[in-house]
Amino acid sequence: MNSLRLFCIACAMLMLSGCISGIDYGKVPHSILSAGPACNPETNQPEAIAGKSMFAVTSRLPDCTSAPVKLTGFRADKLRYARYMPIHNPAAESAKNGRNVPVSFQAEAAWWDDLAAATKANDGQLLLYVHGFRETFDTSARDSIQIMQMWNGSGPVVQYSWPSEGEFLSYAVDETNMYWDERNFRGFLLELAEKPWVKDIVIISHSLGARLVIPSIEYVDRNAETRESNNISNIIFASPDTDRQEFERDIGRSILSHDKVKAGRRMTLYISENDGALGLSRTLHGYPRLGRPYCFDPFEAARLKAQGLPERCYPKDFRHSGEMALSGLNIVDTSDVSVGRSGHSDYLRSAAACRDFASILQGGPGVTKNREPTHLPYVFRLRPYAKGEKPDHDEACKRR
């Protein structure tokens, strides 16, 4: 998609944004929507969470005026702790088909007790998933369930659900809500990292969620008292919608510092040249996004072309003085195996990307048969599908 077309789409979004109703307050006071015991349980109620083995933390405003409980795109007055049912996640199920994921709130202390029991049963390891732009609680819950299945259901998956509107024309609202929610998320992440029963946290974020996760990990690294936050070990950014140059400038001195990498921390980025959503984001923000290898510098693109290489520009690596092999950063380019109209969710949609992602989740090096080295030692590409090859994306991505 060329820059002119993206610019036209961006202008259309801005003009149409005044027509959407997603940011209207509504006809019912928010305090009434979130009142009552269903939204604010004070004691554990086993019957309410029966069969709901998935964990969630949310800053979304709940609507508990009728059953079942619904989670809106508005901001809540506090974090709430929830459990939901791991319903099936078939490929044919649309994000907008109206099916709701059964969810119930749980008393905070009981929620932490149950998470502790599930984490201890998995030798202290858990997954934390933070969604991106244009997600409802239901759509991100389905992604969390899919991620759990790709992890082989070996331990608890916690979904952190911030108040995204779930609408294409609400990007600016989502961006605003994401920044508003940073204090909530970083406080939760700090509390989670300091739990004595947590030995290993795998953090996965998609799209705009990267801008919530990055400063929060930095915050935990600075403020963890009882631990050194080394239990945040495996960080995965899928299609990260954040400024690439800001990442290059700051991350090597913070999240991927020498001490953190030496203690075992690693970071994997899944990016694609075909990511239309991040192409639009670049047009809106002016500078390249981390999840799309766009060459902002035309002279760099010309140098790559002269060398017979694809015109794809990647973030700089972080090589620590005296230990050239110590980096912690791996970039996986899914451009040649992207699927779908946007190419924005290859890690959950493309067979090759899903196999690579599952290997990372399961603690492997991610060196699957489709991964190939590039001219940069920390960047790998996923080999294009052979002519006539018809991969079963749904099977590989656990979408059946």
Overall description:
Pfam families: DUF900. Residues 1-26 form the signal peptide. GO terms for molecular function: hydrolase activity. Keywords: Hydrolase, Signal. This is Alpha/beta hydrolase. The chain is α/β, with parallel strands linked by helices and 400 residues long. It has one domain. It is 34% helix and 18% strand. It is built from 15 helices and eleven strands. The protein has helices spanning 3-16, 30-33, 46-49, 108-120, 137-150, 171-180, 182-193, 210-223, 244-250, 258-262, 276-285, 298-306, 346-349, 351-361, 393-396; strands spanning 54-63, 70-84, 103-105, 125-130, 157-161, 200-206, 232-238, 266-271, 329-333, 371-373, 379-382. It has an eleven-stranded mixed sheet with strand order 3-2-1-5-4-6-7-8-9-11-10, sandwiched between helices. α8 links the parallel β6 (200-206) and β7 (232-238). The longest helix is centred in the first third of the chain and has 14 residues, at 3-16. It is globular. The relative contact order is 0.10. Mean pLDDT is 88; it is low at 1-8, 12-21 and 89-98.
Task: List strands and helices in order, with pairings.
Layout: H1 3-16, H2 30-33, H3 46-49, E1 54-63, E2 70-84, E3 103-105, H4 108-120, E4 125-130, H5 137-150, E5 157-161, H6 171-180, H7 182-193, E6 200-206, H8 210-223, E7 232-238, H9 244-250, H10 258-262, E8 266-271, H11 276-285, H12 298-306, E9 329-333, H13 346-349, H14 351-361, E10 371-373, E11 379-382, H15 393-396
Parallel strand pairs: 1-5, 4-5, 4-6, 6-7, 7-8, 8-9, 9-11
Antiparallel strand pairs: 1-2, 2-3, 10-11
Helix pairs in contact: 1-11, 7-8
